[in-house]
Amino acid sequence: MLVTTSYEPSAEQLEQAHSLAGKLGGRLVPRRQMTLAHLRQRFGREDGEEGILVITKERLEYHHGGRQPLFFHPSTASIRIKRLNLGERDPLLELCGIKPGDRVLDCTAGLGSDAIVFSHAVGPLGAVTALESALIPGFLLSRGVSSYQSDVPGLNEAMRRIDVRTLDHLEFLRSQPDNSYDIVFFDPMFRKPITESASIRAIRGLADERALSPESVAEARRVARRAVVLKEHRDSQEFERLGFLVERRPSTKIAYGVIRCS
User: Fold this and answer.
1) What is the pLDDT of residue 50?
2) Do residues 145 and 138 make contact, with C-beta atoms less than 8 angstroms apart?
């Protein structure tokens, strides 16, 4: 991975680039007036597929594989929290029976949209742990929830409360006591992609694309007090394979499967 800045970087950007190159094991390269393509050609691998982390004034961007750059943004969490603030319903929260004070484990957090909504719903007396096994998405999520500024009431507070950990969910589940979370949530990379989703296109090739394992589901059932929930394409065979009952199959292409634990 190459690490660089935008054109004409500030001293703060240069310092941050140097720090992140060391932290992430990347190679710090000067931007000067070179395009990202020129940086890859001059400093990157021979196959030209080197990922580049760019520190701009506004955000951190990861450019890879000819896709749109990957960066943190609350995305649909902003819209959902605005609706919740207006007293509207959220199908996922209703399905999970989320209450203030609940503990939620998001095993496949990605860039954290669902984790943010969970955190808003459980409030300051609850807790949300967000796991992301892939280095770059996990890093962007951790940085994003700790620093992103939003004018949506309650969103900043919800983001700051999330405990982000960059590790494999099965490893974490094995280490947890029985009944230690109210809800365990899985949103793995869909077996049948929703190709029109720009955010999914950006993260593909970086996130863990392995199918969810029966062992992970078994561990989740042990750890969850109330339910294990799986988010997948509505036509996915994963629900049946892993033993989830599809309690709600909406008109959208996304459906939720549930295993009730009590």
Assistant:
1) 84
2) no
